[in-house]
Amino acid sequence: MNYKRFSIIFSIFVFFSVGCSKNNEHFGPSNDGQEHSNRADEVRETTTPKPTTPDVVSELKLEGDIKHVYYADDDKVFIVADKLYLYDTDTKKILQEAPHEEVLSERFWVTDNGYVAVRQSSTSDHGESVMTDGAFRYKAAFYDYDLNIVSEFDLNQLLADDDMLMSTDAISFSASGTQVAFATYSGLYIYDFTTETKNTIIDLTSEDAKERSGMVNIEQIGFTNEDQRIAFKAQSFDIPADPDKPSFATCGIVNIDGSELLNRTFDNFSCQNLTAYNHLLLFAEDPTVVSGKALVMEMPSNQTKLHTLREKAESGFISGSNAGRYFATPIAHKTGWTIRVYHTETGKLEAEQQVSNDGNDHFMSHEPVIKLIDETRTCIVLLGSKRDDIESKVIISQF
């Protein structure tokens, strides 16, 4: 196996502190942490990107190109290349590594006994016809903390013959690792590994559209509120349905026994991307129809608040931190990306960093992967990982 060297740049204090001086005042929020949307054009015209100057440069020997970064426990993250690596953002060391096969998509969860990864692959990769068992295979791998696979579970066996899983975004594991929630074309379900039972939470095939609050498709889910509730992003119709009107985005929450279903829309805000935490939900907007807001729903009160961001386009691409204390947004400019970090509770701008594209326009074709670690106030930005024709770039810095 050939080894590639990837520069992991540790930039200490490269984030500009909010309100450090008058020269930096347009990088920070207003006194109440809220910027009016009419500031967006002003910021775009007056902000001059400042280059990132690294303090420390360290090279990690990783096999293959870096494809993604995911949260692990505490201050650690998974780095996915040709192998799976467990990286400590505090010690800046690779702690563990394990074999990893290329898949279409995957997600990770931290559980009481280690980690769970759900991976999506084509059924043709398993020697099966794509017409006989659905187009994709979903398999859960249970790891211990040393990245040894303890067991694996084929999630497709939980499906009826005529049903299909939506995506890895429509799968979520409980903190105990003993339950998995999943959304299919026919509904939302929970499977308990201890009792080996599958329960229906929301039946999308029911003739009573009011009972399911008009939902016709559940696209993203996540356990929340001590694993007693499931948050979701869905597509819904009005009740009664109007055949001349398309479905629209909704978001909400339901108890794991199917009770207290709350399916909501918001004025001038279209839910697009869900990040579920134990005590709050974070929603980004549809990037094609942005208002420059970030939506936070608190658990278990269901109270919501909208944070106004510095520029409208930011609200279409929001990345929550590992524990939910912060979230980050990317904005493209001529020489790279502006990464802004906001406080989730208050909406105040915490920090801002300029990430250079090194003169490579390919780094601008997709939004970067951004991960924030609350414990160490670490920001990880991954450029170019969504393309196969370029070598990815990782920037790790403090804010």
Q: Give the number of DSSP strands.
A: 30
| Strand fraction | over 45%
Radius of gyration from the alpha-carbon trace, in angstroms: 21 Å
Strand order of the largest sheet: 3-1-30-29-28
The main sheet comes to:
5 strands, mixed
Instruction: Give the CA-CA distance, first to last residue.
Output: 36 Å
What structural class do helix, strand and pairing data support? mainly beta
Let me know the average pLDDT.
Answer: 85
Low-confidence runs (pLDDT<50, min 5 residues)? 1-58, 129-133
What is the topology?
Elements: E1 4-11, E2 16-17, H1 40-46, E3 56-62, E4 68-71, E5 76-80, E6 83-88, E7 93-99, E8 105-111, E9 114-122, E10 136-143, E11 149-154, E12 171-173, E13 179-183, E14 187-192, E15 197-203, E16 215-224, E17 229-236, E18 248-255, E19 262-264, E20 271-276, E21 280-285, E22 293-298, E23 304-308, E24 319-320, E25 326-333, E26 336-343, E27 349-356, E28 369-373, E29 378-383, E30 393-398
Parallel strand pairs: 1-30
Antiparallel strand pairs: 1-3, 2-27, 4-5, 5-6, 6-7, 8-9, 9-10, 10-11, 12-13, 13-14, 14-15, 16-17, 17-18, 18-19, 20-21, 21-22, 22-23, 24-25, 25-26, 26-27, 28-29, 29-30
Summarize the structure.
This protein is an all-beta fold and 399 residues long. It has one helix at residues 40-46; strands at residues 4-11, 16-17, 56-62, 68-71, 76-80, 83-88, 93-99, 105-111, 114-122, 136-143, 149-154, 171-173, 179-183, 187-192, 197-203, 215-224, 229-236, 248-255, 262-264, 271-276, 280-285, 293-298, 304-308, 319-320, 326-333, 336-343, 349-356, 369-373, 378-383, 393-398.
